[in-house]
Amino acid sequence: MKHLKAYMIISALSLMILLSACTKIDISTGIDTDFTAYLSYNIEIDVEKLDFRYHNAIKRALNEIGWYYQEELGFGVQLNIETNPYSLVMTRRIQNNSFEQAYKSLESLLINEEITPFMTLDMAFQTSERQSNYIFSATTDIPFIMSLSNAEELSPMLQQQLADSMNTGEGTITLSLPAGDLVDSSHQATLINDQVVMIVPLSFTEETGFELIGSVTMLRDGTPGGSLYEIIQEQYRLRGIVIMACIIAFGLLIITILIVILTRRIRTR
Questions:
Q1: Residue 151 CB contacts under 8 Å (≥ 6 apart), including other chains
Q2: Neighbour-count burial of 176, counting CB atoms closer than 10 A to its CB (0-12 exposed, 13-18 middle, 19+ buried)
């Protein structure tokens, strides 16, 4: 049944690419700063220049994909088939309590054959008391995925139209992970608010591959951070708490001693 449903989705997506003048597929995945692992698909179909008789076919295809991802796979779904461009956003989230747990949850999402966009995936992870190092490497192959829809059974004219549409298709893969340090990346990546964000152009005509190597220093409260300023501030806070605790303890000791002395004086009178 899983393979049948997957075939239906691929066929529906192939139909949309075939009929549409412009198809855009954006895939987002990663871990938020609150340790939520996520995978999201955003599909946009421009129907402005498309023969009106094809609109209903695309609407049915988007409805079918959205229904399956929501009811069978547990995704949150937002569907727009009223205004151009038609759009379908599907997102699956898993909340976690730590970065290590979130990394494992993200891996569980991305190795799931029913929902993953990746053909290969390597997610190595090492952690110590305050430091976590990771490597994220993946590939996807849109032409191979589309070949599963038996496009070779189309007429030569439709096969050419599908090929032309694939050549003009647009898309990205956005990977966002907590990071204190970006070690290496296969594409340009940016550190923004303790998150490293890498956006990879998605090819509709050949395999797409990328790799990101990073590390994140965890503050003592469990939140990702690790800039020098944050660690110094944290040390000052901890030092202040220790000093304050010592002052309070010393004050209580003095008060206790005074109470004992006064009690003894009262008794000797």
A1: 14, 159, 162
A2: buried
Does 109 have pLDDT greater than 90?
A: yes
Of 120-134, 141-155, 199-213, give the lowest mean pLDDT range. Answer: 141-155
pLDDT value for 111: 92
Percentage of residues of the chain with pLDDT beyond 70: 67
Burial class, 160, CB count within 10 angstroms (exposed 0-12 / middle 13-18 / buried 19+): exposed
Mean pLDDT of 158-182: 77
186-208: b or e for each residue (b if 16 or more CB lie within 10 Å)?
A: eeebeeeebbbbbbbebbbeeeb
Instruction: Provide the residue ranges of all domains of the chain, joining segments of one domain with +.
Output: 2-225, 227-269
